């Protein structure tokens, strides 16, 4: 039983080994709850922390619907942002720092590198974004979002969220 | 279109602005250029007229380059090129080793770049000189002698605070002597 002592109290520890059915089971428990690690193919929710002309760096916050205790780091390469016209994509017109993005893990990476993520599907991409005026942007198409206050349009790679997950 | 004119000395990179930069480092395929903003701009070695992978431009650390921004926003490192959209230099590229580079406020540059600027025309009647104006507040001047170059530079710096009559008087005094 977990937590059982190795030798029953009152008995002397000798060279005598009790039979197998009397041996207690020992288990090692690390933390209070098990840490959920992103696996290849998992959908993760992440926040963009910086962008570059070649890739975007993100902090992975949720795996599926479970929040992570410490944020992992991920990278979305320029060619993994879209499924079509992968070379003509501009990172600045797809993500901005501060955006919340739904992505899929395509590789765990080596020891030093981050998780490699992809948004090359209709259901993946920017979910929440704030515009330059500071207001939350409203999606108007798969590649544009509009600010409700200033009505300026900004480019993002917008995720087509399934209707059952939308809360209005 | 409307814009707000303001007095400032700190330059913020804007896409399409022509600027004078100082090459600070060579990193493989790109040069790092100081343009006076919060970040250094990157300049690819292929972004010069007639540059190919075999025919690299002769750019050293410390050289002056005149180019324009193709990427300039608050989220990414600015990128500049020394060719225009058709691939020609159009006056951009490496600036020669002689001459003088000095810094002025951004408002003065905008005034000097306005069409039919009197200051440049009047100075041109005084001495012939070459001038390059960068929107990041930098001016490069070259005249026939070092003394003439310094005089032109001092007049341009002082134009910030002089009225046009004061300027005409100063130029008249200089052309007499």
Kindly list the characteristics that best describe this protein.
heterodimer, A: 168 residues, OB fold (Dihydrolipoamide Acetyltransferase, E2P), 5-stranded mixed β-barrel, 3-stranded antiparallel sheet, 0% helix, B: 177 residues, alpha+beta, Ribosomal Protein S8, Chain: A, domain 1, 2 domains, 24% helix, exosome (chain B)
Polypeptide structure, described:
Chain A: It holds the Pfam family EXOSC1. Chain A: It comes from Alligator sinensis (Chinese alligator). Chain A: This is Exosome complex component CSL4. The complex is a heterodimer of chains A (168) and B (177). Chain A is mainly beta and 168 residues long. Chain A has a domain at 42-124: Nucleic acid-binding proteins (OB fold (Dihydrolipoamide Acetyltransferase, E2P), Beta Barrel), CATH 2.40.50. Chain A is 0% helix and 32% strand. Chain A is built from no helices and nine strands. Chain A has strands at 43-51, 55-63, 66-77, 100-107, 115-118, 125-128, 138-139, 144-146, 153-155. In chain A, the strands form two sheets. Chain A has a five-stranded mixed barrel. A three-stranded antiparallel sheet of chain A has the order 7-8-9, with no helix packed on it. In chain A, strand 7 (138-139) and strand 8 form a beta hairpin. Chain A starts with 42 loop residues before the first strand and ends in a 13-residue tail after the last strand. The model of chain A has no long low-confidence stretch (mean pLDDT 86). Chain B is an alpha+beta fold and 177 residues long. Chain B folds into two domains: 17-94, Beta Barrel (OB fold (Dihydrolipoamide Acetyltransferase, E2P)); 100-176, K Homology domain, type 1 (Ribosomal Protein S8, Chain: A, domain 1, 2-Layer Sandwich), CATH 3.30.1370.10. Helices cover 24% and strands 27% of the residues of chain B. Chain B has helices spanning 106-113, 118-126, 146-158, 164-176, and strands at 18-27, 30-34, 41-44, 64-71, 79-81, 93-95, 100-103, 129-133, 138-143. In chain B, strands 1-2-3-5-4 form a five-stranded mixed β-barrel. A three-stranded antiparallel sheet of chain B has the order 7-9-8. In chain B, a hairpin with a 2-residue loop joins strand 1 and strand 2 (30-34). In chain B, helix 2 packs parallel to helix 4. Chain A binds chain B through residues 50-53, 91-92, 96-97, and chain B through 71, 73, 75-77, 79.
